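Hi L.,

As promised, Large ribosomal subunit protein bL12:
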Amino acid sequence: MSISKDDILNAIAEMSVMDVVELVEAMEEKFGVSAAAAVAVAGGDAGASAEEQTEFDVILTGFGEKKVAVIKAVRGATGLGLKEAKDLVESAPKALKEGVEKAEAEELKKALEEAGASVEIK
């Protein structure tokens, strides 16, 4: 019995962010590849087209003086557990969400800034 791609994707979707990071590191080590190199190759033509950007990354650059409020906002936006959200906030600058639409990125930025965080959209 083989495992389908959908089964693997569903299993990954149920993992915490930290577990996914560990999985990627294990895959890089086992297969001798780098996920960053694969992204660079796949996105190599990005500069060639002059199309408007449709996907944005929301980057948490700092948590300011209201760390607890920012952690709560991050948990609400990402669905992370308390420890994962706290670790993510404390490791700023860090990407919160990648490849989201402009409206969602702006909404997330607004919510995080209201909580006291500094946020950047790229």
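Helices lie at 5-13, 17-31, 35-42, 67-78, 82-90, 102-115.

Thanks again for sending the construct details.

K.
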